[in-house]
User: Fold these one by one.
Assistant:
Number 1:
Amino acid sequence: MSDTALQDAERVVRTIAETALENEKYFCDLDAVVGDGDFGYSLARGFGKLLEDWDTLEYSDVGGLLKKSAVILSSRIGGASGPIWGTAFLRAGMALSDKPSPSGQDVIAALRAAIEGIKQRGNSDVGDKTLLDALVPAVDTLEQQLQAGKPAAEALQAATATARESADATKTMLAQRGRAAYSGERSQNSVDAGAMAIAVMFERITQAWSPTSV
């Protein structure tokens, strides 16, 4: 197994967790416009527990890290977000179970597996004004960049720009899932909290990224 691959995966997961904690109020404020206003709290609770238990997690590869994270997130993130984020991490971990040194395409396959898990668990798809509206376009861009032979850091930067643009674009969309769906046309005047969380997480990962793998 590549120690660098595992170190990069640890950096990514920790960055996601730290971003959830640092943006708890911001994500809650976004969610409060048309939702329960607890999205940021729920994420912070789950990812905070992950960081709290970090030194006691037992895993030997990237897939194991993601699956261990999934267990904690599923049990600690409240509401509808817990199953969705837990499933995403679990599906990604399963996709990398036999990949001790994941390639760029292995990472894309894991992200696609996470996306399919989110779709199934949340009964949602692109266009429903959810985190998928930022995540799917970002992964599409990442895959296109890697297939074009771009360096990992450059590909990630492009994907991050797509995530931000796509999250901003949810402002004009009509929510189809969750409590926001009950607000009708009022949901068109605000960005989706989940989509924006994806954008912010991509931005933080890009800042922390070490282009030594993928």
Note: The radius of gyration is 16 Å.
Number 2:
Amino acid sequence: MPGSGAAGTWQWYKGNLHSHTDRSDGRLPPGAVVDWYAGRGYDFLALTDHGRVTRYEPRQRHILMIPGAEVTAYDEPAGSFHHLVALLEPEQVDSVARLEVSSPQRIINELGEAGATVIMAHPYWLGLTSAELARLEGAVGLEIYNNLAEIERGRGYSEPHWDDLLLAGKRVWGLAVDDCHWRALDAGGGWVMVRAPELTPKAILQAIRTGDFYSTQGPEIKRFGVQYDRVGGLLPGAGGQVILECSPCRRIVFYGNRWLGTVVEAAEQGEEPLVTASYPLTGKETYVRAMCVDYAGRRAWTQPVFPEAPPTLRLQRGHI
């Protein structure tokens, strides 16, 4: 099994969880796709061809393959299609072949029963509403950035869907992917940075399920979490705050319930860039997430934190 470091030591791993080959509607064979990512420093990759698991054993032993597939579902009452990315451990790959097109909830249930980790793919590109997504149970996250959808349709960003789900109490994680089909310069535009004890399918998928990762187009998230005051309060002025540290950026945005949040801008061009920012909690937030933007316009997204957690110094494990 590829990997570096012994089990029990936490490391960062770079990966793409949505890609296609010529086994479905991509234009390159699996070997060429895997070689592209392996040659650009990716630690893991999921080939997620439509309706099938594409098996490929890479020549480069340093890249881990995560079995996966993109599955189509149809919501008949709403007249809408859903695409679901199923990420699997090797022993679960046969579960996809048994699926038939049915309702999104039924497919999520069947994949969940088979042990799959399910992600809702490119909701804005599909024209899905937040209400349609909120009716679904069992998916661990959604694609908040899909590079191909942005290049071909200008519908790659699904952050409002994410905020709507978080506001509704859904604890779902946000993923950036490239969804490469090799029809354009669509590879490498978004990925996840996962923190795990080892580079194995089990460890990577566990980190995805628990939110031990951040999503990015380039910037680095170094630290993110909630700092509570010493007396344990979260009332206005009690000292609770959310803190972010990142690679040099020009803009940091904190998002909370409805209108809550703030924007922190760097000084004029040529002045010191932002590498840290904080957001004082009001006591009304049920979630807070953050995004940073570098001087090239590239974004990175934290996972949300939930300030109702026990009062202590609690930095999100995946973002320290």
Note: The radius of gyration is 19 Å.
